[in-house]
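Lab notes, practical 5.
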Amino acid sequence: MDLSQLKIPSQKSQPSIMRSVSWMWILTGVILLIVGLWSGVLYFVLSPYKQIILQNSGDNEVYNRLLMFIDYLPLAAVFIAVLASANIYSGIAFRQFKEWALKAVQVLSYIMLFVAALFTIFWVRVWMFALDFAPSGSESHLWQYVGLFTGLAAGIFYVGVLVYFVRSIRMKAFREAYHNKTII
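Output from the prediction step:
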């Protein structure tokens, strides 16, 4: 085998793990931006009907409390859009090995961990609420359990991935590789 034909990447090429991390943050930011926009649209769609729904729900306290989340959708949309912008900006800066980007990604990791855990709890609460209204033994009851456990599994998986990621980027070897722009 002729070893002279092997291509050795230039020093300007970016290590693959660093590229993966930066793209993960950029894509997470884009997805969050879509979720933030969706939350804003959802507010404008549901807001006009909130009073009608509350009047028709009667004295069901749980149902009335669940509908109160409509009032918080604009705040959630703004928070998610700001978080998405920070993820995208930090991911781009991480690709360029900016000194502050590693710290920003670490802080954003903790914020995303908190948000993912809260969303998983919210998901379970909403689906448990939906199960209270489904007729027992019906096919829709089964699909609501599928929705509950699918979201719960996805949330637990995402939280687990973030815990692993936070643990990884806090390692001294990762920080040194980032500062030296080397492959780990």
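Observations recorded by the TA: The radius of gyration is 22 Å. The chain has a mean pLDDT of 81.
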